Amino acid sequence: MSDASATAEDTSPDTVNKRRQIRPKAERRQQLIDATIRCIAQHGLSAVTMQMVTSEAGLSAGIANLHFESKENLLRETLRFVAEEYHDGQIEIMEGSRIPNLSERLDALLDFQLGRGVTQRQKMSVWFAYYGEAGARPVYQKIVSTVDRLAAQKLEAFFTEIILDGQYRDVDPRDLATGYSALIDGLHLGLLVTPRELSKRRARSVAREFLRRAFPQHIP
Amino acid sequence: MSDASATAEDTSPDTVNKRRQIRPKAERRQQLIDATIRCIAQHGLSAVTMQMVTSEAGLSAGIANLHFESKENLLRETLRFVAEEYHDGQIEIMEGSRIPNLSERLDALLDFQLGRGVTQRQKMSVWFAYYGEAGARPVYQKIVSTVDRLAAQKLEAFFTEIILDGQYRDVDPRDLATGYSALIDGLHLGLLVTPRELSKRRARSVAREFLRRAFPQHIP
DNA sequence: CCTCAGAATGAATGATTGTTCATTCCCGAT
DNA sequence: ATCGGGAATGAACAATCATTCATTCTGAGG
Fold first, then answer.
1. Which ranges of chain A does DSSP label H, i.e. alpha helix?
2. Which of A118, B35, B98, B210 is least surrounded by Cβ atoms within 10 Å, i.e. has the fewest?
3. What does residue A16 show for φ and ψ, rounded to 5 degrees?
4. DSSP code string of chain B
5. How far is A196 from chain B (nearest CA, A)?
6. C-alpha to C-alpha distance for B68 and B46, rounded to whole angstroms
7. pTM for this prediction
8. How far apart are the first and last CA of chain B?
């Protein structure tokens, strides 16, 4: 929106470019998925059209049907990408090869899940747009279930490790992991729907207090 | 789907009735809202059409535009109804004129939020369908925000009462209310999207444990 | 420099959908 | 009984959308 001086030939990647370019298939697919994410975040899943996506990607109308078979396919692959991206990031932290200290790893998890990222709001919108449809679409349920199950197992293992380290009593790692995951989902929902009443800072504080009550020795 | 024997004149309310009936405006509006809820739960918000809704209600095609100005209006009023119904039920319990005992009131709240009700799943679907679109639709955000704020205030007051009664230290009622609300939302999400991995019983147990950690004297 | 496989285009198409409104006909008031 | 206001109908309409495919054009290999 800033550099729109169409005086000479324009070869910048983001602005309108008349020249047709041929790119590898994988690159075009990702380009279309990224455009779909932006469209869902801005207009809502139910308002997204193919023209909207291809226009956002700066490409022609028929290209989405060329690289994905149909609109349904494009939306399904977009969900899969967002779901895997989120859970992969989570799992990388929890497996903990990077951060050996358990307290620091808890903080890193909090930062990843509730930290600030400009693009974070876009991802949340997409996330819940699909959740909203999941009740009626078994395909979406299956994608989310698959990645969710793995993340839940890793979280349970992570909590088990903390429980052993702190010798905590009367704490079931499975129930605690379920509760923590639900809490994070609910906080994301609050950040998305009522951002005026729930700041990111307070959301992080609330989640931290949940962990502090469960693992007082690991959270100051 | 069971009693479909079209042998004689049919005057039952739910089955197909040829005879045209004139009913009060308010009744027709509610009838259409109920049909909309069922359609959203079954097919998803993005797949709902006017014909689907009017057919589900057993009425003619143009009637939705007669009682609501447009489709957008119908969807907006449906959201308002579901949101108010849920929060009114919550508030009635928390105000506690019915149940004086605080522990019993906590249990009643858990039962209402995570109890079994056949229609519960339908309402959850609608709830999250709108949440998914809320990120892109300020109108939805405003409706949810309005009812949510009132419920949050009542919950905070309720928790404050419990804190005073139990003389709990180091517990902020506002943060606790935010956390509990988020936890319930997250559990609803789990019940909707991954029902195989989260039973209602376990969801209730997880929420109860959250409360027990905060109010040990009030939850056995 | 030339060639051509196949990537990209975008106008055309058929299907779907929200909305309208002329017509029908129910039901309470007279 | 009957009359009229207005609730209900449903066929028709205009707009929108996903998808197709004949055509254009690119860029790497010969």
1. 25-43, 50-56, 63-67, 71-95, 102-114, 120-134, 138-166, 173-193, 200-214
2. A118
3. -65, 130
4. ------SS----SSS---S-----HHHHHHHHHHHHHHHHHHH-GGG--HHHHHHHTT--TTHHHHHSSSHHHHHHHHHHHHHHHHHHHHHHHHH-SS---HHHHHHHHHHHHHS--TTHHHHHHHHHHHHHHHTT-HHHHHHHHHHHHHHHHHHHHHHHHHHHHHT-SS--HHHHHHHHHHHHHHHHHHHHH-TTT--HHHHHHHHHHHHHHH-TTT--
5. 9
6. 19
7. 0.91
8. 46
Q: Which nucleotides of D are covered by protein (CB under 7 A)?
A: 5-12, 16-21, 25-27
The amino acid at residue A74 is L
Task: Please name the residue whose C-alpha is nearest to the C1' of nucleotide D28.
Answer: A22
CA–CA distance, B189 with A217 (Å, rounded to integer)? 31
